Q: What sequence folds into this?
């Protein structure tokens, strides 16, 4: 059986979008390949060893988050080159394309991008924007195959860099165990990392504007940016907000979403949001921003969009959604039907398998 090493997930069990994609692929293809997952202790509670059909190598983390990620990629590449014996490497995230210089000495490599068109746009990464552009232009083409999780990425890579990538959407599962009551919360907002581009502050401002008095749940890691955390806490003072923190257990997360009347996703930029797919998978009505990445997934028949450009549009759409809840539930049913056809993991795993087999 061929061996595939996976770099970029950072740790399993998954609690981020890219890691969730990788985890599902490994779970569905572990009977076909021997997987080794390169991880770092900041992203998993597990130690180096075999787990549920795959082997995980866990490096020790350091406190500096940016340096921790850099060292993780370098250590993974060096281990694969000098110690590992694999037939193929699957690298997630194009911001790690620099290690292709090492990996391609010994291996064929598949790279999956997760929002490559957004690299350098987040405030904390803006100073590295030129470096990311350099990597995309000169390093990313070193990969034997490139896949991306959104049509926007695929078009962007071809238009600006002449790079042909295979579009393979993120998948979703629906086998969650329901254990919560409906409508424990009126509104649910969730993100792995609550940073400014996710738009949590926009949601809270809108709720304050309409004097919202019902229960709100916010899930995600709030400590990424201390200044932004303070803004969120200030905006939530006059609202009935429960901060759930980072919910790592997938079934627990899905139950929080399922028990909410509305899932609101005001993100300013995305690749292909797993959180959005998860909301649709439990048939919770969705109100989301009108960015192209969200429109690539759903139509106006399936979700309610609000305009990021129009002031107070989110305020109005929240009120409308709650006042016209039967229409929202009908949209949710259509969204569910849509993702069951287009985001089925059994179909998606076969697309990746075809790519793997073409290089083995």
A:
């Amino acid at each position: 059986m061929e061996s595939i090493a996976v770099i970029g997930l950072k740790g399993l069990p998954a609690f981020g979008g890219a890691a969730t994609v990788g985890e599902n692929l490994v779970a569905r293809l572990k009977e076909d390949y021997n997987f080794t997952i390169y991880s770092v202790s900041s992203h998993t509670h597990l130690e180096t060893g075999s787990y549920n059909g795959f082997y995980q190598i866990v490096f020790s983390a350091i406190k500096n988050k940016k340096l921790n990620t850099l060292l993780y990629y370098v250590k993974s590449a060096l281990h694969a080159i000098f110690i590992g014996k694999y037939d193929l490497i699957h690298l997630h995230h194009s911001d790690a394309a620099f290690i292709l210089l090492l990996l391609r000495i010994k291996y064929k490599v598949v790279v999956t991008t997760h929002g490559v068109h957004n690299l350098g746009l987040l405030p904390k990464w803006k100073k590295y924007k030129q470096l990311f552009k350099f990597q995309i232009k000169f390093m990313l083409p070193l990969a034997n195959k490139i896949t991306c999780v959104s049509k926007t990425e695929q078009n962007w890579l071809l238009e600006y860099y002449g790079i042909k990538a295979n579009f393979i959407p993120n998948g979703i599962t629906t086998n969650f165990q329901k254990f919560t009551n409906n409508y424990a919360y009126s509104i649910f907002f969730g993100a792995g990392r609550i940073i400014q581009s996710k738009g949590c502050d926009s949601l809270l401002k809108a709720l304050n504007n309409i004097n919202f008095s019902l229960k709100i749940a916010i899930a995600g890691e709030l400590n990424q940016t201390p200044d932004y955390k303070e803004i969120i806490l200030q905006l939530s003072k006059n609202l009935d907000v429960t901060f759930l923190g980072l919910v790592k257990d997938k079934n627990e997360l899905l139950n929080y979403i399922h028990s909410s009347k509305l899932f609101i996703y005001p993100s300013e930029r995305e690749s292909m949001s797993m959180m959005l797919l998860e909301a649709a998978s439990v048939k919770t009505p969705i109100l989301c921003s009108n960015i192209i990445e969200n429109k690539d997934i759903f139509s106006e028949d399936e979700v309610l969009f609000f305009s990021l450009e129009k002031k107070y549009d989110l305020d109005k759409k929240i009120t409308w959604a709650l006042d016209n809840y039967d229409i929202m539930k009908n949209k949710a049913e259509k969204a569910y039907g849509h993702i069951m056809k287009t985001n089925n993991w059994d179909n998606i795993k076969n697309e990746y398998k075809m790519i793997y087999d073409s290089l083995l």
In short: Residues 185-342 form a domain with the Rossmann fold fold (CATH 3.40.50.2000).
